[in-house]
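Record now logged for everyone:
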Amino acid sequence: MQKNINLTDGPVLSSLTKLAIPIMATSLIQMAYNLTDMIWIGRIGSDAVASVGAAGMYMWLSNGLAALAKMGGQVNVGYSLGSGRNDEASEYADNALQLTGFFGLIYGMICAVFASPLIGFFHLNSSQVIADAGCYLKITCGLVVFSFLNQTFTGIFTAIGNSRAAFLATTAGLIFNIILDPLLIFGIGPFPELRVIGAAIATIFAQIIVTILFLYYAAKDSSIFQDVHVFRRPNPACILSILRIGFPTSIQNMLFTSISMIIARMVAGYGDAAVAVQKVGSQIESISWMTADGFAAAVNSFIAQNHGAGKKDRIRSGYWSAMGIVLLWGIFCTILLIFFPTPIFRIFITEADIIPLGIDYLVILGVSQLFMSVEITTAGAFSGYGKTIPPSVISISFTAARIPLALLLTQTELGLNGIWWSITISSIFKGVFLFLWYIIFQKKEMEIRLSRIE
């Protein structure tokens, strides 16, 4: 097991990169799994992709609720460690895991009981698509507590400077998932052919494996986890601090997903094939945002610890170092999606009438990849300070604008492509405005620091 990385001393770029590489590797492996999953499901047909796409929206929505405990726990643990208060960091980890378990069980029960009306929201056309979507939802979201715990464990391990534990645990789960997927989907060897249900079962088993490994690594940790006892009485002060920091991010993520669900319902009006295109296209597009999200998590912990230690110069250097790397990645992803959409989309869906729709999606969304990467990384920097409101305000405002913009653009000759352009245009504005807000914030921080010196 790798020792925890010291984020408050030593070369900035080296410390940040050592923390970021396992997180980014985890994101890339997660992306590889998602894409592999889509390849297998795509071989069943576009109807199966549409089923997973509709049910997957509620899994996406659950991530917003999971972010409440994860973000609040990660920031508080990082800040406490940077301030030299390890006992306090353990207590925050304790309460974050308690909140995670509670929210995961509640959300799972709601999805299991109300699966039919939840899927009915999308107004899908095929009865088979609706039935498969309901089964997928009951399995993946009904047992979502494991996904919740894995996200919070990832945040806490990142906060203590040990992103390698999250990498190893997640990688093991994803490898297990990649192996089990085709066996259960197509019924290879002694396994039954379960199709969409097989994909759901494989996902849950993989998440359970990841949780078990996180518990193993937590038991070996000597920095904070030796003092974590999830069955002791919660600390109201810790809970409130976690909720205060995590609430804006949680609301932002859940509103973002809710708006995306409304957009998905608009997409469904163009047929189940359009739903399949959005599902596959978004998975391909994740090559950009999942990697940026991984780097943002590293920036979050780096800034949280250095903020706790009062090292403002390291914070500034860390942000710009991260931004330089993310900008290069965003440019690469933009080039990839705009200039090579056809061979990429053909990997997942081969139906001739659907491929042109997929090409349009990738080209249009490719325009915004650079700006999306900037937004995600800057949101991580704000969150490291415990300032989760600015990224939430920007994200909610411009994401909400997608609905009227999509309604307007779809009335033109753009049609379905008008929806994709509404997503790209809003992403560009989010990246630009959040970046400018952070620059102003940093300038004010510098002015306050200089005034104290004087």
Summary: The chain has a mean pLDDT of 86. The two ends are 46 Å apart (CA to CA). Residues 39 and 248 are 35 Å apart (CA to CA). The first helix runs from residue 12 to 44.
